[in-house]
Amino acid sequence: MSDAPATPQAPQSSPISPISQVPPRPGLADARTGGARAGGDARTGDAAVLLRSVYKTFAADTAPVHALRGAGLTVAHGEFVAVMGPSGSGKSTLLNVVAGLEHVDDGSVTVAGMSLASRSEADLARLRRRHIGMVFQFFHLLETMTVADNVVLAARLSGVGRRAAVRRGHDLLDLLGLLERADSLPGTLSGGQRQRLAIARALANEPTVLLADEPTGALDSAGAAEVLDLFTRLHRRGQTILMVTHDHQVAAGAERIVTMRDGRVSERPGAGA
Ligand SMILES: Nc1ncnc2c1ncn2[C@@H]1O[C@H](COP(=O)(O)OP(=O)(O)OP(=O)(O)O)[C@@H](O)[C@H]1O
Fold first, then answer.
1. DSSP H helices in the chain
2. Out of 13, 152, 219, 240, which residue is the most buried by the measure of CB atoms under 10 Å away?
3. What percentage of residues in the chain have a pLDDT greater than 90?
4. How remote is the CA of residue 233 from the centroid of ligand 1, in Å?
């Protein structure tokens, strides 16, 4: 990667600093007072995520599908933003372009100050390993490995040495309230605990931004509350979170809600803390 990140990253061996130790990151105060907004019209120099006029069209059997049609969004470091909107409005596509999993047709996507344009797949994978954590509706756990090993392996894959990965796994499980289940298999956990484990895995690389696509979609209300409570705690500790949800109660836990419609993002009047 050629660009320098806008915000220096913690050394890979540091113990889960973005979550457990770091004070609110630069830009958090701006975000909380409404400094960062849909459309990318505000201070953007320190944004964790910045999309400008993003277009993405998928080829389909009948007619092309225009999933993103000029989408713009700025997420400041430390912000917790919920994305709502009707089915098919482009929410998952938006997360996928932020993760570099989908290439855009036009417009720009910047993560941690680095443009995703013209990057090779290998470069995008490196950028993801360093800056992106992803959580999905279904948990994507390694069912034959213990809870602890699920997190340690995720840390190892992000480039952390064995001892540091074990330490980070321990700290994350402690933070996420799963330490007493460290030696269990994921199949023995409740739905909420399984999603907490998936979140621990997603945080193992100390990501600049945690992307969550319907993280409570497969959970009952107790599980959803558990996950939302965790996101709120992570956010208070400075973790940037961009979450897609259909659930108004879950969205209300975010600092700011934006709405997608027909591939564009708009600020929801009156939403946010
Ligand atoms: N890989 C793909 N190939 C073709 N069409 C796609 C692809 N991915 C998404 N689409 C289409 O793009 C549009 C936006 O999809 P997307 O999944 O982003 O919407 P969404 O708002 O997340 O929907 P939902 O709330 O139902 O998950 C939809 O019409 C979808 O069918």
1. 17-20, 28-32, 91-98, 121-131, 147-157, 162-175, 191-203, 221-236, 248-251
2. 240
3. 69
4. 30
